[in-house]
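Postdoc handover notes: sequence design on the structure in folder B. Input tokens:
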């Protein structure tokens, strides 16, 4: 397979599976840094902050853990709701999207527990809590990009909940803002880089690399080298297809602008990283908390 296997990048790795585990991969070696023993929920989102702590959203809670897996802060999802995505604002605030009736975007001060900002998000079906949202991201200029799964679109909101921009994206799963102002949108059919005029300026589809067997795309990231990293999930609950064993599935792949493959990640044993929900490349110094929203920093 193209690339250097686990040694290609240093990265944080987490996935939705029967086991809720988070790995840190450095220098080609994987270390298990968190294993959720609760037996509930699925890890849908994870990000490492510049101080080494890790913010997790796992359906029924959002929490901050240290590099040893110790829980430093936890917020449980209220009954009848789910939390699948969370983003740090500075080191004292967390923005999360709460699926439910109503669905809400909220900012909490993790030191005091105070909810400092919240607004309602529209949904197609308030009763279908699980299918409303998976991923949302803050832009560098303090706006919130939300992937509306059940409405098949990506919307950008200000801190008052006003819709500022929208793009139709059936089957959307995630949206990441890019430094050039464009948005990298991941759906079941592929990845699209879209500008603010609604024009698709780059795209990738699993049909561009059918040999990789990427059938359930989750997120896409633009790396500092200009390549695009895409991950793909494997369902741990469904009966395996003998024609396509889990070990043949690609957990993540890196594509050059011309769509050729630069790196493929398949690590189903020694170590078994499990299915991939999210990956954060750590090759370059990053400070994902260096954003603001509604005056909160």
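Designed sequence:
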């Amino acid at each position: 397979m193209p690339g250097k296997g686990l040694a290609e990048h240093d990265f944080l790795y987490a996935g939705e599976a029967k086991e809720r585990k988070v790995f840190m991969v450095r220098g080609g070696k994987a270390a298990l840094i968190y294993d959720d023993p609760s037996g509930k929920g699925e890890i849908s989102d994870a990000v490492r902050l510049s101080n080494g702590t890790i913010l997790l959203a796992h359906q029924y809670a959002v929490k901050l853990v240290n590099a040893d897996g110790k829980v430093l802060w936890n917020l449980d999802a209220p009954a009848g709701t789910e939390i699948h995505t969370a983003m740090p604002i500075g080191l004292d605030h967390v923005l999360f999207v709460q699926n439910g009736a109503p669905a809400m975007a909220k900012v909490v001060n993790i030191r005091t527990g105070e909810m400092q900002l919240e607004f309602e998000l529209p949904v197609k079906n308030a009763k279908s809590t699980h299918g409303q949202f998976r991923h949302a991201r803050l832009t560098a200029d303090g706006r919130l990009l939300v992937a509306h799964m059940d409405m098949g679109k990506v919307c950008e909101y200000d801190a008052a909940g006003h819709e500022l921009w929208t793009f139709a994206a059936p089957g959307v799963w995630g949206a990441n803002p890019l430094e050039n102002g464009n948005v990298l949108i991941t759906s079941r059919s592929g990845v699209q880089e879209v500008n603010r005029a609604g024009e698709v300026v780059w795209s990738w589809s699993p049909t561009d690399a059918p040999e990789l067997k990427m059938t359930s795309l989750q997120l896409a990231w633009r790396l500092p080298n200009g390549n695009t990293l895409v991950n793909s999930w494997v369902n741990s609950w469904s009966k395996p297809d003998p024609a396509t064993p889990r070990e043949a599935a690609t957990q993540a792949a890196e594509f050059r602008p011309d769509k050729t493959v630069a790196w493929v990640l398949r690590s189903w044993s020694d170590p078994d990283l499990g299915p991939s929900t999210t990956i954060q490349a750590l090759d370059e110094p990053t400070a994902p908390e260096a954003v603001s929203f509604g005056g909160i920093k």
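Context for whoever picks this up: The chain has a mean pLDDT of 94. Don't rerun without checking with the PI first.
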